[in-house]
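In response to reviewer comment 3 from the previous cycle, which asked for concrete evidence that the modeling workflow produces usable outputs, we include below a single protein chain processed end to end. The sequence was submitted unchanged, and the resulting structure tokens are shown without manual editing.
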Amino acid sequence: MLELVKKTLIRGPVREFLLPRLRPRPFHAYCVGAMKTGTHSLANLFKESHRANHEPERGQTIRTTLAWQRGESNDSEIRDYLIKRDRRLWLAMDSSVFNYPFLAMLRDIFPDAKFVLTIRECASWVDSCFNHQLSLPIDDEMQALLDYWFRPSDYTPGPFDEPLTKRGLYPLACYLDFWQRYNSTVMQTISEDRLLVVRTNEIRSEGAELANFLGMRADELNLERSHSFKAGTKHDVLASLDAGYVADSISERCGELNQRFFG
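The workflow returned the following structure tokens.
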């Protein structure tokens, strides 16, 4: 009955006023893992017990990020957007890579919010990114965001990158530096008492720790949905690269952090 009321009668400001009162959230959390690290699966752990969503308002959030990056929106406007989006969605778990640019703002605007960083072993993550880019359509806005994040204009492809560039992919260093920069930024921005790091391959086995971190019961998580969004076509691009080049690049650019979590 509550869901019917929300869908048919509660709109706009009325919905924003009533929803927190009709359904108080037991916790407020953001999963801020990079793409291809299990953010979809993590969101689905909560969907049967709490309000949770994966990449909510995806298009609007991407456009807001690009406008901010281009100087078309200022910090005050972004903060206002984030506050209004939270009131509108009223999620207990907001799981999205698109929250990454706003980490510091989210941390400060919502001092009681907690953050979960899903992290995937570097080589496996890179390979999954290759498969994703080659298998799924990427619109102009998403491509602009990827270019903003991966910074391809800062890199000159080397001879070992040819299997990538001929497929329209970035040089390997773009992916590795992004992996390092992304995960390091999250860990440096969010204090340890508000951050839980979960390895992608342990999302299911770490359910009890995740529940404890958020102050909920472990049996409220649907662990059967912990692998609910699996990769599609595998293109074996990483395997086509020179193995020594890949190993040396990972060691140079991601070695310490990758070793810390997956050594």
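The longest helix spans residues 243-262. We consider this sufficient to address the reviewer's concern, and the full set will be provided in the supplementary archive.
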